[in-house]
Amino acid sequence: MDESKSALKPCPFCGGEAVVHAYSHDPDISDWYYVFCKKCVCRLEVSTNRNPFYTKMEAIEAWNRRAERTAKVNKVTRVSSVIRTGRCGDCGYDVIDSYKHCPYCGCKLDWSE
Ligand SMILES: [Zn+2]
Ligand SMILES: [Zn+2]
User: Fold this and answer.
1) Where are the domains of the chain?
2) 3-class SS string, 12-40
3) Per-chain residues with Cβ under 5 A from ion ligand 2
4) Those residues with Cβ within 8 angstroms of residue 42's Cβ, 6 or more apart along the chain or in another chain
5) pLDDT for 17
6) Ligand number, closest to the Cα atom of 103
7) What is the 27 CA–ligand 1 centroid distance (Å)?
8) What is the pLDDT of residue 45?
9) Concatenated DSSP letters for the chain?
10) How far is Cα 67 from Cα 22, in angstroms, rounded to an integer?
């Protein structure tokens, strides 16, 4: 295995240490994996097509690429003069504009209206 690929990059939000975990399931169903940051507790749970990661490698590679993807924020709503809310164009997660990355699918968020 290529070491550079199997190593998790630090969290793109805060630079914290990231770890891979497996969801344990019924033995008849294969486990899936997610990555989370120990420092700010953000996660990466799904791939761009919203499938779970069935191997550790898939989860690690997606985490390492997360900061390179950009999604347009949909349904941008101005809540106050400083706060906007919207929905990640990639995975549909509800986000607020202090987020530079989606906490669910991990892509960069484009807040331009
Ligand atoms: Zn973090
Ligand atoms: Zn997302």
Assistant:
1) 3-67, 69-110
2) CCCCCCEEEEEECCCCCCCCEEEEEECCC
3) 88, 90-91, 93, 102, 104-105
4) 11, 13, 14, 36, 101, 103, 106
5) 94
6) 2
7) 31
8) 84
9) --HHHHSPPPPTTT---EEEEEE---TTS--EEEEEETTT--EE---TTSPPB-SHHHHHHHHHHGGG-EEEEEEEEE-SSS-EEEEETTT--EEETT-SB-TTT--EEE---
10) 22
Q: Are strands 18-23 and 70-78 parallel, antiparallel or unpaired?
A: unpaired
- Mean pLDDT of successive 10-residue stretches along the chain, which has 113 residues: 69 89 74 88 77 88 83 94 93 88 84 89
Structure tokens belonging to residue 16: 């914290």
Closest CA to 71 of 94, 48, 85, 88: 88
Q: Which pTM does this prediction carry?
A: 0.67
What are the phi and psi torsion angles at 3 (to 5°)?
Answer: -60, -35
